[in-house]
Amino acid sequence: MKSRTLKRTPIVVFQLLIAAIVLSCGSEEEDPNLDNTSPTISAQSFSIEENSMNGTVVGTVSASDVETNNLTFIMTGGNTGDAFSIDVAGALTVNSVEALDFETNPSFALTIEVSDGTLTASAIITIGLTDMDESTPVDTSCTILTIIADDGDEILFDYDASGKLTSIENRKSDDMGGTSSDLLNFTYTDGKIVSAEYDANNTNEHGSYTIEYNSDDMVSKTTYIDTNGEIDEDRFIYSNGVISSVEYWDNYSGTTAGELVLNGTDEITISDNNVSKVKYTNEQDSDVGTDDLKYDSFNNPYYENIGWLVFSDIIIYYFSINNITELKSENSDGEAYALTVNYEYNSNNFPTKTSYIDGTETYFENATYNCN
CA-to-CA distance for 286 and 266, rounded, in angstroms? Predict the structure, then answer.
C-alpha cells in the first residue's frame, strides 16, 4: 500500500511556498527603513569672544535629511573643559566660561552627531575664540591726596599740572613734638615712572630707585641702592600676563659680601583681579607661610599705582583692584595672624575711612581725594 503522506507532499509544499511569499510581501510593506538614508551634516565654523558668559548662544548646527525625518543632535567629542553644550535641536551655547581662554585654547573642534531616529552622521564643528583685551580698567575718577592716621602721621601725594604723581611724602610726629619725613620724588620717561630719589631726613638715609618694565608695560623689576651700596631688588614674574611670583634679591644676606642672592619668594594667586593667596618663602631661614585674603567690591586707590608700590613695597595693593577686608596669615612654625578691615566710602566708591581690627586693637586712617 502506498503512503498517503507521499501523495500529499506536493500540496503541503505548495501551501508552504504560498505562505512564505505572503509573509515576505507583508514584511516589505511594514519595514519603513528599507528606503531610509542617513542624514547629511557637513563641517561648520562659528566664533565667539573668549570669556563669554555661560548660556551665551554660539550658533545652531545645521543638517538635512532626504526623508525630512525629525533630526536630533548630540556632542560626542572635542569638548575640552566641558566648554559648550548642544540641545537636541542643534543649538550650541557656552557651558563653562572658565574654559574659554584664548591664550590657553584658541579653538575647539567639536564632534557633533545627528540622528534621524535610526541612522546617524557626524561632522567636526569648529568654534574659534576671539582674543579680547582682558586688562581691568582702572577707575581714575578719584586721585588720592592724603592719608591721615589716627596717631597724626600723614602721607601726602603731590601731582603736576598734567595729573602725574611727582612725589609721596610721609610726615611723622615723635613723642617730643618734633616731626620728620620720608620723601620720594619720581622721574618719568615715556609716561612711566622709571626712577625715584628717596630721602629720609630723620635718619639721613638716602637712596635711589630704578623701575623696569617688560614688553607689555608691566613692572618687571625695582632696584633700590642706598648710599652704603646695599641693594634690594624685586623681580616680578608673570604667566600669561598675570603676576605669578615676586623674587626678592639683595647683596647683604648671603655669605659673600656684595653678591646678589635670592632672599625670599612670594608665590601669588590671583582670583577675580585680586591677590587671593600669597605663599612666601624666606630662603635664608627656610621660613614658609601663607597669606589668605578677602576683598570688598569697591575701588582700591593703589591699584597699579607704581609710585605707591615703590614707596610702600606692598605688592598686594598694586595687583588688587579691590580693598582687603580680611587677611589670615600662618607660617611654618604654626604662628598665626588675623586682620579685619572695614571701610567707609565716598560717592565714587573709594575708601575714605579705613579701620583695622588687629585682635583687640583697632586703629584707623582717613583718606582725601580729588574726584572728577
Answer: 13
Residue-number span of the structural domain to which 121 is assigned? 44-130
**Domain-embedded: residue 5:** no
Grid cell digits, residue 237: 614674574
Domain-embedded: residue 359: yes
Q: pLDDT tens, 93-122? A: 999 998 999 988 999 999 999 999 999 999
Overall residue count recorded for the chain in this entry: 372
For residue 149, what are the CA distances in angstroms to 201, 348, 368? Answer: 20, 22, 12
Q: Domain check: are 109 and 174 in the same one?
A: no
Judgement on whether residues 191 and 152 belong to the same structural domain of the protein: yes
CA distances from 305 to 143, 218, 240, 264 (A): 11, 12, 21, 23
**pTM of the entire predicted model:** 0.65
Q: Using only C-alpha atoms, what is the Rg of the chain?
A: 36
CB 326 within 8 A of CB 293: yes
| Cross-strand pairs, 112 | 75, 123
Amino acid code (one letter) for 130: T
Task: State whether 116 and 165 are in the same domain.
Answer: no
Cβ pair 262, 248 in contact under 8 A? yes
Is 94 domain-assigned? yes
- What whole-number distance in Å separates Cα of residue 249 and Cα of residue 267? 15
Alpha-carbon dihedral sign for residues 282, 283, 284, 286: positive
| CA pair distance 213, 189, nearest whole angstrom | 12
Both 268 and 307 in one domain: the answer is yes
Total structural domains within the chain: 2
Query: Which pLDDT tens digit goes with each residue over 202-255?
Result: 667 899 999 999 999 999 999 999 999 999 999 999 998 899 999 999 999 888
Residue 67, amino acid: E
